[in-house]
Amino acid sequence: MPPLAERVRIVESHVLSHDWYLLKKTVFDFRRSDGSWQRQQRETYDRGNGAVVLLYNERARTVVLTRQFRFPAFVNGYADLLIEAPAGLLDHATPEERIRLEVEEETGYRIHDVRKVFEAFMSPGSVTEKLHFFVATYEASAKVGSGGGIAAEGEDIEVVETPFDEALAMVARGEIVDAKTIMLLQHAALHIFGTTTI
Q: Which are the contacts of 1, defined by CB distance < 8 A and separation ≥ 6?
């Protein structure tokens, strides 16, 4: 089988919306595994790539999360604020630079050492975004502001410091439903806190 780049032929592409981010409709031919060509079309939403971090204190066995309103979750029937790990779009910064800025804006913690643990596409059927996942340690002394996000961008973020085991219990109870946060908590359970169940 030839390389993937040789199995995709773009026929035409149209911009459907370029208001908030870029929504395109693309018609393409795809060479299937049996060698035949099939014409397909897809809509893709391009909002850029992003970064997310789990702040943890191993000694105190705590993590720092955020709680905020997410309109897409609301219109899909989720009637509560979402609890999430701090995250943001790269906006032409490196993942490491962006996540340090986002953490301080959202939580008030100034961190320096971040460790990348993996990358993942979160909804590859329609959204182009790839997330860079990080973990970083924090101490109370690293708190340099109140956080809360940037009001002009519509952010109204509550900082949530919670015991790690309680965060896992919140996943089990359906109180944490954000995929990137669950993935980082699972990573922490396996590689930081030594917990084998979530």
A: 7, 33
116 sits in which H/E element: strand 115-121
What one-character DSSP code corresponds to residue 189? H
Q: Which of 82, 131, 86 is nearest to 105 (CA)?
A: 86
- Cβ contacts of 31 within 8 Å, gap of 6 or more: 2, 6, 7, 8, 37, 38
Dist. CA 114–CA 70, nearest whole Å:
26
pLDDT number for residue 116: 98
Side chain identity at residue 110, one-letter code:
R
In the 8-state DSSP scheme, what is residue 32?
Answer: -
d(CA 155, CA 141): 25
Q: What is the pTM for the complete model shown? A: 0.94
Instruction: Give me the pLDDT at residue 105, please.
Output: 96
Give the per-residue pLDDT at 70.
Answer: 96
The residue ranges of the chain whose pLDDT is under 70 are 195-198
Give the Cα separation of 81 and 156 in Å (integer): 11
